[in-house]
Amino acid sequence: MTKETNAALYERARRSIPGGVNSPVRAFRAVGGTPRFISRGEGAHIVDEEGNRYLDFMNSWGPLILGHAHPEVIEAIQNKAALGTTFGAPCRAEIELAEAVIAAYPGLEQVRFVSSGTEATMSAIRLARGATGRDLIVKFSGCYHGHADHLLVAAGSGLVTAGQPSSAGVPKDFAALTRVLPLDAEDKLRALFAAEGSRIAAVIIEPVPANNGLLLQRKEFLLTLRKLTRDNGALLIFDEVISGFRVAKGGAAEHYGITPDLATFGKVIGGGLPVGAYGGSRKLMAHIAPEGPVYQAGTLSGNPVAMAAGLATLRILEREKAWERLEVLGALLEKEVAAALAGVELPWKMTRIGSIFWLSFQEGDSPRSAKALDEAAGARFKPLFHAMLERGVYIPPSAFEVMFLSLAHTPAHVAHFAQTLRDAIAATAT
Ligand SMILES: *Cc1c(COP(=O)(O)O)cnc(C)c1O
Description:
Elements: H1 6-16, E1 38-42, E2 45-48, E3 53-56, H2 71-81, H3 92-104, E4 110-114, H4 117-132, E5 136-141, E6 153-154, E7 164-165, H5 172-175, E8 178-182, H6 186-196, E9 200-205, H7 219-231, E10 235-239, H8 251-256, E11 262-265, E12 276-280, H9 282-285, H10 304-319, H11 322-340, E13 349-353, E14 356-360, H12 375-390, E15 393-394, E16 403-404, H13 411-428
The chain binds pyridoxal-5'-phosphate (PLP).
């Protein structure tokens, strides 16, 4: 049997799927070249259809905190799947995962499961609007919250506070209900609340912004946000789709000691299957149908197979003391990279929180807002990405995407990453 090459598969995919992919960044547009079609994953590695094996630091963009195809997670999935994959009626596994999430996360009394991070944030926003009777929402430039219409919004120009659609197909009138502020700017936040505080339903933020580089925030900024929302009767939504069960058992809320009104989850919570969730106090969640007037539903929401994958993952994380171990591994990675890159000409910086890390190739301190990102650093990344890939190390195909460690990574993997990075930089130096 002749193997289809990645190039042949890409050409074939582009005939039946827009751009050949089901999520845009997979198409390698930022780095050029041919996307790899992955045939399997095992622990810290993925293997493409040509049989090339890569040490993986993309981690499917965050969900696989235990690595690929963890035997216990796969077994849990297989066992549940054999009993039927979805019923459209409640099942025990939903309660078990809900109880586990509530026990883990500060201030959470109830959760509702959905099937993606996008659905989670979209539903949390609807709930915030329904519960407060207000329409305005506030987001931050550089934070990603999935692709719901009112969240695909960029900052308006100059003094105009109304947001602009950041995608075709988003009506201007929708975007006009979203305010977009820069991160790390208490003054702008205060000014907005002074002007429109009584109209704001919610402020949504990635407390660990990890979708535009890793823009770690000062705790004081998050505290100001907590205070301003509370004082103005607006809800604070922590979008923990990446950070939940990743930076700590209780996500960024635990890490910073700040409790939001609503939190959204995805990625790790599904153990590699499509799961999202949003939750908050019982009082707030009582606004959701069937108890309350805010409608939200899902045919496959809470299906037993997805719940089992999430439950198995959370159990293993707890048992393995995952967050402590990943912190140790992350600190080792920092050390190895610093040692390997000592003396290289390229400006570089590693920003890290637990098992999330970002390498930026720009001068100066780790940026804290999207406007502090250097576009030229993006150009430096492109040849480096391919040099890493050729050497069997898979990192996300964009300069502004973070990387992840999983429990499948070993100290040897981490050392290999650092050595390969040094070689790749040397090979691409101009
Ligand atoms: C990935 C992500 C989303 C969207 O989740 P999907 O499952 O891709 O819809 C939302 N918010 C954050 C912070 C994310 O990282």
